[in-house]
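Before a colleague's protein record goes any further, I have to sign it off. My question to you is simply how this chain folds and whether the tokens agree. I do not need a full report, just your reasoning and any doubts. This is what I was given:
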Amino acid sequence: MDFSPLILSIKAALFATIITFILGIYSAYFTLKLNKLKGIVDGLFTLPLVLPPTVVGFLLLVLLGKNSTIGKFLLNYDITIVFSGLATIIASIVVSFPLMYRTARGAFEQLDINLIYVARTLGLSEHEIFWKIMIPNCFSSIISGTILAFARALGEFGATIMIAGNIPGKTQTMAVAVYSAVQAGNRSLAYKWVSIIVIISFATMILLNLIESGKIKKLGKGGY
């Protein structure tokens, strides 16, 4: 059995989760500060969550293809995104970003505003308030969002197959491997990949439930 889809899926999910973690938190903080156009910006950030993944993949294909402005610019440096390993990471980032963003934004909105007022009274800058007040108090929710984003990136299929294709050893992720095995009539291989995905997803949900029950919350507060 070729385990390259498992390795590629985990690599893509890890890279995507790291980038999504940073983008999601700062985007949530940025949206929270907006007075005008807040609804439009929030809608744009959340759009990949409600769009069919194949539509997201098609839009990425149009945006990053060789004939697009970005694609032509990257070709000057011999960089091609479509049907590459980088495409799997980009697809994973786009589909998992809304989960991280919405979770972080929800946590920030539920934070007791009096904590921020007190911090300002004590002379803390907005940067210090963000890192010393907001992040520690929203730690468990942020970790939950990170796990959800990782799980979503790990199981991504529609956008990935549109922009990255199905190249064994290069762009074939676990979800794509299931599709490929079924198409080839290899039910045995499909069952193996499905079992691996179910086990990883179940472990992810167990971890998420542990966080929601508050068992890891103390670690976040203790770190700050």
Remarks:
- The chain has a mean pLDDT of 88.
